[in-house]
Amino acid sequence: MDSHAKWKEKMKIPHALLADEGGNVAQKYGVWVEKTSPSGKTYWGVARTTFIIDEEGNVMKVFPKVQARGHSKEVLAALK
């Protein structure tokens, strides 16, 4: 996606970014969920979640209901 490429460049991220445009990965990880807007309308979207996955593809830790502020420190602490 062009927007991802621009954001990656702006943030100076040296790693590859992946986009789950069809939502297939989100469904497999159980994070494609029905949500409710403040107005009461229901819709489908991704539950913000971080997964730590080891070299063999095993899920080592899950952080559900992620809040962006301070989350990177929490993830770095779990990796140590």
Descriptive key words:
single chain, 80 residues, alpha+beta, two-stranded antiparallel ribbon, two-stranded antiparallel sheet, 3 helices, 4 strands, globular
Summarize the structure.
With about 80 residues, this protein is α+β, with helices and mostly antiparallel strands. It is built from 3 helices and 4 strands. Strands 1-2 form a two-stranded antiparallel sheet.
Helices and strands in order, then pairings?
Elements: H1 2-11, H2 24-28, E1 32-36, E2 42-46, E3 50-53, E4 59-63, H3 71-79
Antiparallel strand pairs: 1-2, 3-4
Structure explained in plain terms:
It is a single chain. This protein has 80 residues and is α+β, with helices and mostly antiparallel strands. It has two domains: 1-46, no CATH class; 48-80, no CATH class. The protein has helices at 2-11, 24-28, 71-79, and strands at residues 32-36, 42-46, 50-53, 59-63. The strands form two sheets. It has a two-stranded antiparallel sheet with strand order 1-2. Strand 1 (32-36) and strand 2 (42-46) form a beta hairpin. The chain is globular and about 40 Å long. It starts with a helix and ends with a helix. 0% of the residues are buried.
